[in-house]
Amino acid sequence: MAIDPALFQENERLDPRAKAVRFAEVGELRCEAGGFLPSVTVAYETWGEPNSDRSNAVVICHALSGDSHAIGWWDRMVGPGRPIDTDRYFVIGTNSLGGCQGTTGPASPHPGDGAPWQTRFPIVTVGDMVEVQMRLVRILGIETLLAVAGGSMGGMQALEWTLREPGRVRRAFITASCAAHSAMQIGFNEAARQAVMRDPRWKGGHYDPGDPPAAGLAVARMLGHLSYLSEAAFDAKFGRRLQNKDTFDYHLGTEFQVESYLAHQGDKFTTRFDANSLLYLTRAIDYYERRSLQGSRSEYLFTSFDSDWIYPTHQSRALHEMALAAGCHSEHHEVSLPFGHDAFLLDGEHQGALVRRFLES
Amino acid sequence: MAIDPALFQENERLDPRAKAVRFAEVGELRCEAGGFLPSVTVAYETWGEPNSDRSNAVVICHALSGDSHAIGWWDRMVGPGRPIDTDRYFVIGTNSLGGCQGTTGPASPHPGDGAPWQTRFPIVTVGDMVEVQMRLVRILGIETLLAVAGGSMGGMQALEWTLREPGRVRRAFITASCAAHSAMQIGFNEAARQAVMRDPRWKGGHYDPGDPPAAGLAVARMLGHLSYLSEAAFDAKFGRRLQNKDTFDYHLGTEFQVESYLAHQGDKFTTRFDANSLLYLTRAIDYYERRSLQGSRSEYLFTSFDSDWIYPTHQSRALHEMALAAGCHSEHHEVSLPFGHDAFLLDGEHQGALVRRFLES
To answer: Residue A15: what pLDDT?
Structure first.
């Protein structure tokens, strides 16, 4: 497949951390769950350059609310001199299928009428997301990956990469993720979905894009943030400190800093995220289930965090054991950090050292 | 104070577990946070009879969504032959101030206009709730309690009982509770409050009682249930089992049993609970903070559960250490059970043996 050499030159003219999203058409998609998308656009960014034998490509897969800009949301892990070193590797970030940061999703125009797909959008799976990434990577002239890396939802994608076309991925770094959501993980996602779907502005998904179910989406995001931190992280960040005052106002409104934080996170999210996307993406990860890694020919590095109660260590250990049972080289490391699930985004040091060695090995 | 002997005879004519709520007027209340209630009614139930020197009374304090019917919601702990034995003790259950099961709360009629107080209701504290209980107990002719017992919010009330009038309570059994909410506990409550307050039907609290913010209240309750169970309890109850089917429907609606459970719990709650009550009660427990038990003359028994991540053991251990520092007899026991916070409601066996011995000691 022909490669446009401009793809790899554009970044050099830019601040390496500036957002420079490009788009690729990857064709129609028959979705695993039975739906059909007549055309799929992928938003992506790349950093660094392919080496002479094109053996240095690394795909980064984002978590629920992320995007193609891995050098931004994972800046302690990805960048010049970082563990996933854009001076050495050709790093590719994409927005996931079903998302709302440039890749085809429920907020994209339906080709039939130009109005957003909304809940006409077909159910997509983690496998569909990976299929789209695989097509993009081929368009970029890459046949095999040095590595695929991701946390949380991105970890499920990375796992799936190693199983779809065995041999196409040498190494997979999977952090704070799992082979299948537990009932509690599904429960947190469902409460978030219900917050959106019970908002009268949701209107069965066919909301006015100018008047979305922002209240429900904000509550859903608060719920997300509650699950991303740990008790210790909440204590350290907020404790029982009050918001801009020394004494209680004794009312139902904001009193504590943690309340203000959650409201801010919830409201901010509604300005950048499509409510239907949240439904489709959480549905996709709730459906996801792998019981074995038989057939994989990849090497695995799994990390988890002792304070992450929503994606607990035993899930990463189970992945590691599945990898060993499949005859793959695998390592699992539990990192002790108090940040909860967010640790996979915040930790460049411990994960970083492990990933640097893993990629260089 | 005169006692109506009928109070203690009525129960004998009834199924001992049937609900037989009575009401007492306890007068006006100047609230700790500055508000004023011109009259307060308390809904209560009693079981058993006072002994000759009225030294066998036990007050039971309920958690967020409970009511006076302790023999129902705490049936493994309270009843004939149970650890809190209604054949031996005169047991009093009350609905808390600010609640919606018969005691004055935001859904009660405002004496000025007969319409519900709603958000005209003053902020009430755990101390106010206990003040109301203390008045009721005096009306019932009881000066000192053998014990006060409660879990979660009820544990805060039990703690407060031991500090308001030292010497009035011999023993306090406090389970799955704390001296002050952490940021994470406040955060979960705030997300629940926001689910209600961002529901357009809430209307600043002045909703039509026939058209309440049921969507927000249901989501708030789902969030509560997520925090009441543990990962292991969710796995045991639901796992990844599907709802009345063998294969996915691949849609945004209910797929997993855990989703159906949460929706059912959320919807059921809206038929019996007032949305404003949820706001006032969660606010009261978020405000609550005790840094010392100095001055108490009570004996304490604290229990906590190793799988309870929302009221974790270290909070009960801290209470125990505060009791010892105040020179009080105190015990703390961590019970190993997989049910999460709900364990304090479900465990009659381990807690029960401890409480039976504590009350008999």
So the answer is: 59
For residue B71, give both structure tokens.
């023999």
H or E segment to which residue A169 belongs: strand A169-175
**How far, in Å, CA of A38 to CA of A303, rounded?**
38
Query: What domains can you pick out in chain A, each with its CATH number?
Result: 6-182+289-360 (3.40.50.1820), 184-284 (1.10.1740.110)
pLDDT for position A4: 42
Q: Which residues of chain A have pLDDT under 50?
A: 1-14
Contact predicate A117/A124, CB 8 Å? no
Residues from chain A contacting residue B123 (CB–CB below 8 Å): 250-252
3-state secondary structure of B335: strand
A238 to chain B: closest CA residue = B183
How far are the Cα atoms of A131, B144, B189 from residue A300, in angstroms, in the given order?
A: 20, 65, 39
3-state secondary structure of A123: coil
Distance (Å) from the C-alpha of residue B242 to the closest C-alpha of chain A?
11
Active site residues of B: 152, 308, 341
Q: Helix, strand, or coil here: B78?
A: strand
Nearest chain A CA: its distance from B251 CA (Å): 6
- Which of the residues of A are catalytic? 152, 308, 341
What is the residue-level pLDDT of chain B in tens, covering all 361 positions? 333 434 333 434 445 578 899 999 999 999 999 999 999 999 999 999 999 999 999 999 999 999 999 999 999 999 999 999 999 999 999 999 999 999 999 999 999 999 999 999 999 999 999 999 999 999 999 999 999 999 999 999 999 999 999 999 999 999 999 999 999 999 999 999 999 999 999 999 999 999 999 999 999 999 999 999 999 999 999 999 998 889 999 999 999 999 999 999 999 999 999 999 999 999 999 999 999 999 999 999 999 999 999 999 999 999 999 999 999 999 999 999 999 999 999 999 999 999 999 999 8
First-to-final CA distance of chain A: 30
Inter-chain Cβ pairs, chain A and chain B, closer than 8 A: 170
Q: Are B11 and B46 in contact (CB under 8 A)?
A: yes
Please enumerate, as own/partner, the contacts of B155-159 that have beta carbons within 8 Å and a separation of 24 or more. Answer: B155/B61, B156/B126, B156/B285, B156/B288, B157/B61, B157/B96, B157/B126, B157/B129, B157/B130, B157/B133, B158/B59, B158/B61, B159/B290, B159/B293, B159/B319
**CB distance B124 to B80 below 8 Å:** no
- A198, A257, A263 ranked by CB distance to B218: nearest: A198
Beta bridge partners of A84: A78
- State the best of A123, A185, A222, A308 to mutate against chain B, taking most chain B CBs within 10 Å: A222
Which chain A residues are closer than 8 Å to B284 by Cβ?
none
ipTM score of the complex? 0.94
- Provide the shortest C-alpha distance from residue B54 to chain A (in Å): 38
Please count the residues of chain B.
Answer: 361
What are the start-end ranges of the E strands in A51-131?
57-61, 78-79, 84-85, 90-94
Centroid of chain to Cα A258: 25
CB A278 within 8 A of CB A200: no
Closest CA to A88 of A97, A73, A78, A98: A78
Q: What six digits make up the tokens of B123? A: 């902020």
B147 forms beta bridges with B58, B171
How far is it, in rounded angstroms, from Cα A158 to Cα A116? 29
